[in-house]
Amino acid sequence: MVSPSDYAECSVLARAVGKELLSRLDWMQLQPHYIADMRCRTGELTQELAVRYPKAQILGIDNDMTMLHYAQQHVSKCIKWLLADGESIPIAGETLDFICSHFLLPWHMRVIDVLQEWQRLLQPGGLLLFTSFGPDTLREWASLLSPSMHIVDMHELGDALVQAGFVDPVLEVDHYTLTYTDPAKFLYELQVNAFIPRDLLLSTIVMQQYSEQAQLTATFEVIYGHAWMPKTRGYRQDAEGVARIPLTHLRGYKGEK
Q1: 41 occurs within a structural domain
Q2: pTM for this structure?
Q3: In this predicted structure, what is the pLDDT of residue 254?
Q4: Is residue 243 part of a domain?
């Protein structure tokens, strides 16, 4: 079990990607009243949502009670916290009008089940904003990737969003490379973030690589995505994988008339 303080120390990538994720809200027409941050971890991103939308009711959700306790102690008192898994959230359907999910999807084998649960929770016209990892993640260390991570590519995520009933999905990919000159720090940070398993054998492999190159790199393919709930529910793909949605049912952005 990772301690929240260790995670807070090592979540450099999550922090940088989270800020970039929220910057996408700058050009969206959105005035949410009920927001959920799925996999809120230590609550940093949840706090930023509270600052951005001070009138909204915000719920931080995580499946780790120690993370929730840490978040409760370190961020705004106006946020509520809920212990739950991404596939089963004990709140009523059509309760939320904005779901933010930061790096939750790679930890679920059945992405479609998670998306369908979020579809149940969102009101018509609601927004899903998320990040995930793509296949190039830890390409230098592919054989060491944590067995608990389930990575799908951008196209599979787009198909799953439409299959789950979302409309107008937009997905982008960016790459981040972390460089380490300290093998111990490299192992520590990747293991705290659960990117690679805690295994003594890894130390030998990592040290061999370091002795050859005098540094270590870790590449992450990050998928940024968002999609909307249709203003009228009930859309699904047909047998040919096509969902037909009237243009009048799509959510608009700033500047649209």
Answers
A1: yes
A2: 0.87
A3: 46
A4: no
> Which structural domain, as residue segments, surrounds residue 115?
4-134+148-175+222-233
Averaged pLDDT of the chain: 89
**Please, which residues have CB within 8 angstroms of residue 199's CB and are 6 or more apart in sequence?**
none
Taking phi first (over 0 means left), then psi (-120 to 50 degrees means alpha), and beta for anything else, what does residue 169 get?
beta
Q: Tally DSSP H helices, then E strands, for the chain.
A: 8, 7
Q: What local confidence, expressed as pLDDT, does residue 256 receive?
A: 43
Query: CATH number for the domain including 66?
Result: 3.40.50.150
Among 157, 56, 67, which residue's Cα sits nearest to residue 114?
157
3-state secondary structure of 218: strand
Count of domains in the chain?
A: 1
pLDDT tens for 111-165 read 999 999 999 999 999 999 999 999 999 998 888 888 889 999 999 999 999 999 9
Is the distance from CB of 105 to CB of 114 less than 8 angstroms?
yes
